[in-house]
Write a structure and sequence with these properties.
The complex is a heterodimer.
Chain A (H helix, E strand, L loop, with lengths): L2 H6 L1 H35 L7 H14 L5 H14 L4 E5 L5 E5 L11 H11 L5 E6 L8 E6 L12 H50 L12 H57 L4 H31 L8 E4 H18 L3 E5 L6 E4 L1 H18 L5 E8 L3 E8 L11 H17 L3 E7 L2 E9 L6
Parallel strand pairs in A: 6-8
Antiparallel strand pairs in A: 1-2, 1-4, 3-4, 5-7, 8-9, 9-11, 10-11
Chain B lengths: L2 E5 L3 H13 L3 E5 L14 E5 L7 H11 L5 E5 L3 H8 L5 E4 L4 H15 L7 E3 L2 E4 L4 E4 L5 E2 L3 H12 L7 H9 L7 H15 L9 E4 L3 E4 L2
Parallel strand pairs in B: 1-2, 1-3, 3-4, 4-5
Antiparallel strand pairs in B: 6-7, 7-8, 8-9, 10-11
The chains are: A alpha+beta, B alpha/beta.
Chain lengths: ~450, ~220
């Protein structure tokens, strides 16, 4: 992969995510710590305000600085210190043991100090509450002392044991780890969800093609591996669309060809038939009349053959219009038989109709059904003339119901000529039956032929 | 004399069809294309129409004719694959013949259509011993001179038979044509009416010669 390409790859994009994460980590963790502090403050007000060491140092520092100050200046400074430590009690006693200033003014501090009182005070202050810092004033430390007392509750205790401080390390650990992991997962999720969206778009385009047959292309942004996939898909969609258009054009061509062919074959045949008929009107010998009858019959046969051939080609291409509906096949068959009756009668056929007074409903295309039976009757009329018999019946069974056409011709094997003709007609019957989910078969012997058109299931009465 | 409008572009076929129909006693107007069909519809009793025509195709012409004159029978001739044409053709054509057809078959179908759609003439239709005045709904027994009174349904039955002579008509076809509703168990009604009709018009109702029963299929009136 070229360097330029690598820069746009998915791997590189994810590395960007990682880098962003690393960049955000310090920000995140500072935020956590600040947040935790605030949390403690708001919830429990436990943040220590002062530190022992800090107070001590400040106080001693201040005392040193006040060494050569006048009383007024000292008072000022002490007032400022009091402001700094508002909860404190602050006072200073001069070298004579007189309390010169106490803040707040009503603090419980003796006005005069003796040595024993000072010592007692010091002793009682050690490790007591409030926290007391005493600083000696003056460069020689003879100028008195200044004291600050702050309640211990405002201080941090290094060894102070309370529930929250015990938990803090553990909680902090889990919280920090958890939030860091969370940030990482979030960034990764963002990255993957964008990829996922592109894949979904692709999948939807494929589904659309599958369902509607419409080949849509997807927009290609970026230049990574998924973009490659999208481009390939688009190329394929284009090809499929083209091939489908080509197929439709071919289909159109075929239809026209069939229509033209049919016309070109039938027209001269019609002319011949017409003229043969004209001839028949003339005065002819018996031989002549017979010849013309043959000519006429053959022309008719050719017409049927053309019809069958073209229908067959349409059928096998799946282009024969098919509209199935729920129809009473007994009624249909009766009507078809009725329409063939006059012809059969003319040829001296005995037509036996054994159709039950039932309604049997099948899902069939009316034209197709008619076509099947027209072909079967036609065959009987043409090839079973000697038998002079045609029987139409219905057999209703538990597993299947059959419509039957029976003749007493010499049987299929013995039909000499044009078995091919019958073949095409029967192939059509076979194909149509299959499409309509019907089973069809023939039993043929020298005594005759029986054609069965069956449906596997118990019949449904209306 | 009935006037037939014949639309066919192939000269060789057109020539002998025109001749044949004229010889059978029809007046024939032969057009070689469908463009000006509508102009010629006046006074025409039947149209024979070839599907494949130059210019406007046969189906379009057929539709136009039907729109213009819905009661005028149209017989379609086709040289194409029977199926598609049949399905589309039957949507408006009253009958359908594929080429190559036998001239007698054409003539027979023409006659049937004319009979079916024709306005009853003043002359009675002769059916064995009966004279039937279609326009007046009157049936007279020629041999006895007596008039036969038929109910409305009985007359419609007889009329339907006469418009489909020599054809076997199934009970469903008869019922639906006369009662104008789907045949759902109308068998008894039909049989009763046919029995009554036979009792009125047959010489011997138990051995009918006019309305034949064809076992298992239906009924037929032969001319």
């Amino acid at each position: 992969m070229s360097r330029g390409k690598w820069r746009k790859s998915l791997l590189a994009q994810y590395l960007v995510v990682v880098v962003i994460f690393i960049g955000l980590v310090p920000l995140l963790n500072s935020a956590i710590i600040w947040g935790y502090r605030q949390f403690l403050d708001i919830e429990h007000g436990i943040t220590p305000k002062y530190e022992y060491r800090e107070v001590e140092e400040t106080w001693h520092e201040a005392a040193k600085k006040m060494a050569g100050d006048s009383d007024a200046v000292r008072e000022e400074k002490l007032k400022r210190l009091k402001e700094k430590y508002p909860e404190a009690t602050v006072f200073w006693v001069d070298g004579e043991g007189v309390t010169r200033l106490k803040l707040p003014r009503d603090a419980d501090v003796p006005d005069e100090w003796t040595a024993p009182m000072a010592v007692a005070f010091m002793k009682s202050s050690v490790l007591a509450d409030p926290f007391t810092v005493v600083a000696l004033l003056g460069e020689d430390e003879q100028d008195g002392f200044m004291t600050i007392q702050i309640p211990r509750s405002l201080f941090s205790a290094p060894a102070e044991q309370n529930m929250y401080s015990m938990l803090t390390p553990f909680v902090a650990f889990f919280v920090i780890v958890g939030l860091n992991v969370g940030l990482f997962v979030f960034l990764s999720w963002l990255f993957f969800s964008r990829i996922r969206r592109r894949l979904t778009t692709l999948q939807q385009a494929m589904r659309e093609a599958e369902v509607t047959g419409d080949f849509v292309t997807v927009p290609v942004r970026k230049d990574d591996e998924i973009a490659d996939l999208e481009r390939s898909f688009n190329r394929m969609a284009e090809q499929l669309k083209e091939s489908r258009e080509r197929e439709q054009a071919e289909e159109q061509l075929r239809r026209e060809l069939i229509a033209n062919l049919s016309h070109d074959l039938r027209t001269p045949l019609t002319v011949i038939r017409g003229h043969a008929y004209s001839l028949a009107q003339e005065d002819l010998s018996e031989k002549g009349t017979r010849s013309l009858a043959v000519i006429d019959d053959k022309i008719r046969y050719l017409g049927e053959l053309i019809d069958n051939l073209l229908s067959f080609s349409l059928l096998t291409a799946g282009k024969y219009p098919y509209r199935p509906e729920r129809l009473d096949v007994v009624r249909l068959l009766r009507a078809i038989t009725a329409s063939w009756y006059p012809l059969l009668e003319r040829e001296s056929f005995d037509v036996e109709v054994k159709l039950p007074e039932l309604e049997i409903f099948w899902e069939v295309d009316k034209q197709w059904f008619q076509r099947i039976w027209d072909n079967l009757f036609q065959n009987a009329l043409r090839y079973a003339k000697e038998g002079k018999y045609v029987g139409v019946s219905v057999q209703v069974g538990n597993e299947r119901t059959c419509l039957t056409l029976e003749d007493r011709g010499p049987g299929l094997e013995n039909t000499r000529t044009a078995s091919k003709g019958a073949g095409i007609g029967l192939s059509i019957v076979s194909l149509m039956a299959e499409t309509m989910d019907l089973k069809w078969h023939i039993e043929s012997s020298e005594q005759g032929t029986r054609c069965f058109l069956c449906k596997d299931s118990p019949y449904s009465r209306s | 004399m009935k006037h037939i409008l014949y639309v066919e572009d192939e000269r060789e076929i057109g020539e002998w069809v025109e001749r044949d129909l004229t010889e059978r006693g029809y007046r024939v107007t032969w057009l070689t294309d469908g463009n000006r069909v509508l102009e010629h519809l006046n006074g025409v009793d039947l149209v024979i129409l070839d599907v494949m025509l130059p210019g406007l195709d046969g189906f379009t012409v057929g539709h136009r004719i039907k729109q213009h004159a819905p009661d005028l029978p149209v017989l379609m001739l086709s040289a194409r694959t029977a199926v598609e044409d049949k399905v589309e053709g039957l949507s408006f054509a009253d009958d359908y013949l594929t080429k190559p057809f036998h001239p007698e078959e054409l003539a027979a179908r023409v006659e049937v259509l004319l009979r079916r759609f024709g306005t009853p003439s003043a002359h009675p239709v002769k059916l064995q011993h009966l004279d039937i005045y279609m326009q007046e709904n009157r049936v007279v027994d020629r041999e006895t001179g007596r008039e036969v009174t038929l109910t409305g349904k009985e007359y419609r039955l007889l009329d339907f038979f006469l418009r489909h002579p020599n054809q076997i008509l199934t009970k469903e076809q008869l019922y639906e044509a006369v009662w104008d509703e789907p045949f759902a168990g109308g068998e008894n009604t039909l049989m009763v009416h046919i029995r009554h009709l036979r009792e009125k018009i047959e010489r011997n109702p138990s051995q009918p010669t006019i309305i034949q029963t064809v076992r298992g299929l239906g009924y037929r009136v032969k001319r």
